[in-house]
Amino acid sequence: MQLIDTHVHINFDVFQGSLNSLQEHWQKAGVVHLVHSCVEPDEFQGIQSLADRFPELSFAVGLHPLDVHKWKQDTAQRILTLANSDRRVVAIGETGLDLYKADNFQQQKQAFSEQLHIAKQLDKPLIIHCRDAASNLKEILEDFYNNVGAVRGVMHCWGGNVEETQWFLDLGFYISFSGIVTFKNARSIQESAKMVPSDRLLIETDCPFLAPVPKRGKTNEPAYVRYVAERVASLRNISLETLAQQTTANACQLFGIELPSSKGDRDKVASLN
Length: 273
Hints:
Oligomer: single chain
Number of helices: 10
Radius of gyration: 17 Å
Strand order of the largest sheet: 1-2-3-4-5-6-7-8
Largest sheet: 8 strands, parallel
Number of strands: 8
Strand content: 15-25%
Distance between the termini: 18 Å
Order of helices and strands: EHEHEHEHEHEHEHEHHH
């Protein structure tokens, strides 16, 4: 069984000094690839060094909505240049909107819109963070689609209800579930996890945050994506093996990841759908 954790932050200080054991854990759990998100371009060199160290790591470059105060006149060009500088860059982000922790909507919108254009120009998927901002995000994306064209990507660490989930499915996005889906009171998110089409479904840890049950309260790590997979499989009434095949094939499709057995996994999924 192969799993892909589509959203990690293993560059954070909490993991320093334990990265080798972290890799041992994710390998034992069947995690064969990780997509490392980026909250600001200054992280790029450090994430790049991690990818040098761990060949199963792809990564993104972008600016998080809670870091938009760091957006400067040259930030868009910098993201564009960095994205073109390394073939292991598979996405732009994480970007998006967060109106839960901040109220600077116009500033967030501007930075997000700039990154939409970069993703479109490079034909790379977006990693989108959306918290308490689904309707605003939907409006921005619809406007972009109507005036510029379609973009692709993933709603990461998704926390929306069924109606909001459908909005972004209709816009062509993948939906990624984190450890939140394992929480007892996350009924709305669990309903969303049941209704996402099998070819648009992804899983992640968003580590070091949001450790899933039964590791809740601990520092999250890529190995724990298996618990997310188990819960989503249970909600969808399918086997863990089937869920792993589907989500791994989807991650490879969206991010252009090549695994030794990627083609075989996609063929298996095609026969299941």
